[in-house]
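Pilot study result, target chain (325 residues):
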Amino acid sequence: MKKYLLLIMMHAALTLSAQPDAVMARLERLPNIIEMPYSEAVQECIDQYTKEPLKSRVGVMLGLMNSYMAYFEEALEANNLPLELRYLPVVLSRLDVGKKTGDAAGLWQISVRDAQVNGLEVNSLVDERLDPVRSTEMAVERLRTLYMSLGDWSLTLAAYKGGETAVTKAVARAGNQRDFWRICGYLPEEARAVVPEFIAANYIMTYYCEHGITPSDGTLPRETDTVRVKHRVALEQVEAVCEVPLAMLRKLNPQYRAGIVPEGYALRLPEDKALNFIRNESDVYAFQADKFLTQRTTVVAPKTQTTVKKRRTPVRRRRGRGRRR
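Predicted structure:
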């Protein structure tokens, strides 16, 4: 009976912790530069994070952050951007590196066009939108460019999601007001929703304990290293020689769509396996290459002699002249 009452009290305390007063007080304590005011829309987003099925995903995302945080913070610091932007991928992709929505893909949900314009490679073998490092570098640069143009972080977030043109049109329709909360009614849904969701993401990734959320064990190693491959190699070859599970290799290198790393590209490995690869590199390339690298680079076609039968040109008979009478 006492245990039952204790569980009820704990549940009541957790429910109370999501009340507006508690949420507002916690938002005020966040160490942020980007404005994060409380609103009903923010509360609705927080409520979604604290209830299933999204609540379980928050635990997974907290574990994944151990692997991705360094990439995010390094790129943001290098561009002198607010560190709270590290939680934008929580909104965009739920930290699912392979997530695809329409034409967008990856942690930062980058379109094919934006990727190609900004130097990311997208082809049948490689999709750098799925590379956590390269995609983060491009996304941060885009955020910096948008902020330089718009001069407001909330407008920048809306433009990242819905396009800068949509934001400038909304500003004009709202009488040239540049307050996101005053122009959001003129924005398309995806651009209007991203700011409350971003505030809620910062809240839940900071105050998850207050809502009974426990980080899951990370599915990716915290410490990784990269090696540059000298020859085209299949992930199965690396698995066999370096003793790294194929599933782990795919998670660490999601940008290689066919499981083939082209010559000269980077391969990410658990830190303790990178040296193993370097020491056994020639063995990796040689291991069952005929089986895993079946695409031919050259072919020898048999020499055959073909003859073309000449067509006989039909002889046209000359019409005889009419008979003389």
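One observation from the pilot: Confidence is low (pLDDT under 50) at residues 12-16. A full batch analysis is planned for the follow-on phase.
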